[in-house]
Amino acid sequence: MSAQAPSAVILIRAEKFKPNPATAADNAFQGDAPAGQSDDETAGKALAEMDAVADALRAAGVRVHVFSDEDHTRPDSVFPNNWLSTHAGGNVAVYPMYASNRRHERRADVLELLKSQYRVQTIVDYSGLEPDGIFLEGTGAMVLDHVSRVAYAARSHRADTHVLERFCTDFGYEPMAFDAVDEEGVPVYHTNVMGCVGTDVALFALELIGDEHRREQVRERLTVNGRKVVEITEEQVRQFAGNAVELCGRTPDGKRHYIMAMSASARRSLRPDQVAAIEESCTIVDIDIPTIELAGGSVRCMIAGVHLDRRPAAEPELTEAVEAIDENPHTADGRDVADEA
């Protein structure tokens, strides 16, 4: 199994979803619900899309942990990758968030599930930097190459380079920061909308990196181990083509295979040659999520990958821990514990 492609993921089933007014100012990808559509109708459509993502990943043989969220004050909780990341060796990071109404998306029950079902050695919590106005929004702000140990980051107030360097020191990555703007000069708010890194292929909007020398450095670093770079355009970025994630699933006969999960909008924006390049190493799994994309994020933003080793089921502390999680009203319907991909 590739270090880049996790075989398990965490999803949040946000029952009160709606585009977050607190993030609209700097998220150029965010939109409004159709005129006349109520908040309840928007939330209902989004909920069906969340379930479709979970079902598609399960069908591909990915282990899916689903947590429910009924709190109407957390409209963006469907995007857990901004506050949480996991790493080989049992390491977990918790991040400082820019929007104040997103900071209580961080959940102890998610961390407890990780500790009960996976080998967690260390949790490094950077959220104490929020009062100082310093932010690094997880794998939204960073696109991580877990194989070559590189953290790509477009500079913004959601991706402070001082915290980036601190994270890289703590977790053993090389920081590669750059400036990226759209055709109107607006900074890219999250790096993961302009690109993703897989084991053998990367999708990246290198044209958004204005400094030609830095652009070529990023290109060279992406390809140093033979990885193919599929360059995407700004228009494709706006259709969320960069907001994809490589995962490891299992076929019905138990064989591992790699998938590239993305939205249907992202898939439709790709040219045939780009699709062919991606599918040389992984199968595209696309899901239609137009309501969720109104919030300015897509499939990658919805997924917190689990890059941790599973605990053996026979370990005595596991049963007690899982039972405690099941009693928590914020956890899902039990499928996260029962599913065995």
From TrEMBL:
Q: Where is this region: Disordered?
A: 22-41
The UniProt GO MF terms for this protein read: transferase activity
- Lineage, top-rank taxon, reads Bacteria
Q: Which UniProt key words apply to this protein?
A: Transferase
The cross-references to InterPro entries, in alphabetical order and at most eight, read:
Amdntrnsf_FN0238
Question: Looking at the keywords, is Signal present?
Answer: no
Record-linked NCBIfam families: citrull_CtlX
Question: Matching PANTHER family, A to Z?
Answer: AMIDINOTRANSFERASE (PTHR43224)
**Protein name (database record):** Amidinotransferase
**Where does this protein come from, organism-wise?**
Nocardioides guangzhouensis
